[in-house]
Design brief:
Blueprint: H1 3-7, H2 16-20, H3 30-34, H4 37-42, H5 46-58, H6 65-80, H7 93-103, H8 110-130, H9 137-140, E1 148-153, E2 156-161, H10 172-187, E3 192-197, H11 219-239, E4 244-248, E5 252-253, H12 255-258, E6 265-269, E7 273-275, H13 289-297, H14 299-306, E8 312-313, H15 314-319, E9 325-327, H16 332-344, H17 348-360, H18 363-380, H19 384-394
Parallel strand pairs: 2-3, 3-4, 4-6, 5-7, 6-9
Antiparallel strand pairs: 1-2, 7-8
Helix pairs in contact: 5-8, 6-7, 6-8, 10-11, 11-18, 13-14
The structure holds ligand L4XM7KOE.
Residues 166-167, 169, 204-211, 219, 222-223, 226, 230, 253-255, 281, 283, 286, 381, 393, 399-400 line the site of ligand L4XM7KOE.
């Protein structure tokens, strides 16, 4: 089972297929469960255990990732004994979480695991029968991200940039978390993935403190590593397999704009603006915009944005084809999410295959352009023009 896959519909769109694929079981409750010794001394009979495995498939309410991990671990312990597989790699997050849960059960006897599994399922059944269907925010929210809020509901995974006090400027940590979130979303049960921003901005682009936080290796090393980070970041968008939607709730700057050329739908509030002030910053385009923008809006309009830094209103961005549709800010959220919920019910496989057909025509080209743009930026970041622009921002001499 793909754990994140199962969690993809934690809220509204509960997915029986995913639940069925999960051999259920418990890890956090291990100490508590071990207190059930008197009961487990007799042990649940195999029939009770098999019946509990079947009951799990009939649960009306998604129990949440934590419980699913517990069920998974107990199931494995009950059927195979102590964890006996190699520890997955650091970045194989899903399998690592499953492995950790199973491994945490140590030498818990198979019989005890079986009984604990039966007890856990029985508790889940009574709570799902009796308690209300109200889902807590905590259940819906994906853990492990500091700069993003990730939720899954109605077959939609929403990745929300969450540094509103800094206008959702993108730190290096944030680039990395976004890559992890995209990786997880590509494997979960959602049909559509959505990006949006918390607060009044969608995103003010690259966090300029990325230029001031210089490691002992010096600025050259930082520029080299940043170019790799940028290339990897953009590659994740090029390769993302599902329909990707930007819900642009407010102004967007820099890389938050250029990357939109790799999205499948861009919905904008009429409060949003689109600004790529690269020449003001001594920088050059990224996010494959040197290719996607001329293709989307024609070379003349692309030059106005990418070279001369013309800021577009949402209406202008719509007229240039960068934005799919503009909504009044007062009804933006309601209209957009109603639309997306309807789209998310369309055939998942057909949508994903269609996206591949469209994207595959130019995937290789996009990767090559991304590598080239990143290479050029690595040099630009070391230029006086760029350094001075960053210093001007921090000394409050310049604001866009
Ligand atoms: C050695 C090489 C390392 C390079 C590492 C690079 C990694 C990959 C890079 C990929 C290339 C990307 C390029 C771009 O995105 S270019 C665009 C960069 N963005 C900007 O230049 C925007 C700068 N911000 C502003 O001009 C204004 O803040 C803005 C117009 C967005 C909003 O103005 P407003 O007056 O409404 O609000 P404040 O300025 O008071 O902002 C509130 C606080 O937020 C901080 N802030 C906002 N944006 C940024 C930002 N981009 N970087 C850092 N900090 C930002 C602002 O400083 C305020 O903070 P304080 O309250 O603490 O003062």
């Amino acid at each position: 089972m793909a754990l994140v896959g199962v969690s993809g519909r934690l809220a509204g769109c509960y997915c029986l297929r995913a639940v069925r694929s999960l051999p259920f079981c418990s890890s956090l409750q291990v100490p508590a469960l071990q207190l059930h010794i008197s009961k487990t001394a007799m042990g649940a009979c195999q029939k009770d255990f098999e019946s509990a495995v079947n009951q799990v498939k009939l649960l009306k309410k998604d129990p949440g990732n934590e419980v699913k991990l517990k069920l998974y671990a107990l199931y494995k312990q009950a059927t195979e004994g102590p964890c006996n597989t190699p520890k997955p790699g650091l970045f194989d997050l899903i399998n690592k979480a499953k492995w950790d849960a199973w491994n945490a059960l140590g030498n818990l006897p198979k019989e005890t695991a079986r009984q604990n599994y039966v007890d856990l399922v029985s508790g889940l059944r009574s709570s799902s029968d009796s308690s209300s269907q109200v889902k807590s925010e905590a259940d819906k929210k994906r853990a492990g991200y500091d700069t993003l809020v990730i939720t899954s509901e109605d077959c939609i995974t929403k990745i929300m940039l969450n540094r509103p006090a800094k206008k959702n400027a993108l730190t290096t940590q944030m680039y990395r978390e976004i890559m992890l979130a995209l990786e997880a979303a590509s494997k979960d049960d959602s049909t559509i993935t959505v990006f949006t921003g918390n607060g009044d901005y969608y995103s003010s682009g690259n966090d300029l403190t990325n230029f001031t936080d210089i490691p002992p290796g010096g600025i050259e090393e930082k520029a080299k590593n940043s170019a790799i980070l940028l290339r990897d970041f953009v590659d994740c968008f090029i390769d993302f397999p599902k329909p990707l939607v930007a819900v642009v709730n407010g102004p967007a700057v820099g890389i938050a704009v250029t990357i939109l050329g790799l999205f499948d739908l861009v919905y904008a509030s009429d409060r949003a603006t689109f600004h790529t002030p690269f020449s003001h910053l001594g920088q050059t385009p990224e996010g494959c915009s040197s290719y996607t923008f001329p293709k989307i809006m024609g070379p003349a309009k692309a030059v106005e944005m990418l070279i001369f830094g013309k800021k577009l209103t949402a209406g202008e961005a719509y007229a240039q084809g960068l934005v799919t549709e503009v909504f009044p800010d007062s009804t933006f959220q309601k209209e957009v999410w109603t639309r997306l919920k309807a789209y998310s019910k369309l055939s998942q496989n057909a949508m994903h295959i269609s996206k591949q057909i469209i994207r595959n025509h130019e995937k290789e080209k996009l990767h090559a352009i991304n590598a080239e743009e990143s290479r050029i930026l690595q040099e630009r970041w070391l230029s006086d023009e760029c350094m001075n622009a960053v210093m001007d921002f921090f000394s409050r001499k310049a604001k866009l």
